[in-house]
């Protein structure tokens, strides 16, 4: 009986992330993932039953790792403005990382013929939206934001954060802006959001 270890599973996931990012979902193979990680194909199949299962694990693990800093910022205590700025800057930097964009393109391509899109939404964007919703609801109750539906409020804020750069980056229409440009864009999103929702 083969003994599974978390370190081996994560090694497979990291190797698979590189393969999927470089070749796309269709061209990726379990053989290449096994070769990249340096394990036998049998070992990889001992952890994951299919390429789809590996990809779902890649999405969950990598998205959680990349976006954890942004959403952890929502758990901090302090005034609303610096908390919103910290979240928006960190979120925008993360969501525009080339590897995140590459994986999201794969999700978009595969969503119509599998449950990959649904899985990604449930384990990524939806969880993040709920965290932001809960954070904003607390500040609505404190009177720091005007009375509003917290989920819609959260959706508006996320839309403002990605408004300037996400679509053209996703479509390879522009080069990724430097960190200062992304920081300025995030600050503008906070400004517009507070103009709409501050009492």
From TrEMBL:
Domain HTH tetR-type: 6-66
The keyword ATP-binding appears for this protein: no
One Gene Ontology term of the molecular function aspect: transcription cis-regulatory region binding
Gene3D superfamilies registered for this protein in UniProt: Tetracycline Repressor, domain 2
InterPro entries assigned to the protein according to its UniProt record, in alphabetical order: Homeodomain-like_sf, HTH-type_TetR-like_transc_reg, HTH_TetR, TetR_C_Proteobacteria
Residue ranges of DNA binding: 29-48
Pfam short name (any one): TetR_C_7
Coiled coil feature spans: none
Keywords for this protein: DNA-binding, Transcription, Transcription regulation
PANTHER family: HTH-TYPE TRANSCRIPTIONAL REGULATOR RUTR (PTHR30055), NALC (PTHR30055:SF119)
Protein name as catalogued: Transcriptional regulator
Organism encoding this protein: Gynuella sunshinyii YC6258
């Amino acid at each position: 009986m083969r003994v599974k270890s978390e370190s081996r599973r994560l090694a497979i996931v990291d190797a698979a992330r590189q393969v999927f990012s470089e070749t796309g979902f269709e061209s990726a193979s379990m053989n290449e993932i096994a070769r990249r990680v340096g394990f036998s194909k049998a070992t990889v199949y001992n952890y994951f039953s299919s390429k789809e299962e590996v990809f779902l694990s890649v999405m969950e693990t990598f998205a959680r790792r990349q976006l954890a800093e942004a959403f952890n910022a929502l758990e901090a205590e302090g005034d609303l403005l610096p908390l919103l700025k910290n979240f928006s800057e960190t979120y925008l930097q993360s969501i525009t990382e080339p590897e995140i964009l590459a994986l999201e393109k794969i999700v978009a391509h595969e969503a119509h013929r599998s449950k990959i899109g649904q899985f990604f939404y449930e384990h990524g964007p939806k969880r993040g939206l709920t965290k932001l919703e809960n954070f904003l609801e607390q500040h609505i109750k404190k009177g720091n934001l005007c009375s509003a539906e917290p989920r819609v409020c959260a959706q508006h804020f996320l839309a403002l954060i990605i408004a300037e750069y996400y679509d053209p980056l996703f479509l390879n229409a522009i080069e990724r802006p430097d960190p200062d440009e992304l920081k300025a864009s995030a600050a503008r999103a906070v400004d517009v959001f507070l103009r709409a929702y501050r009492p």
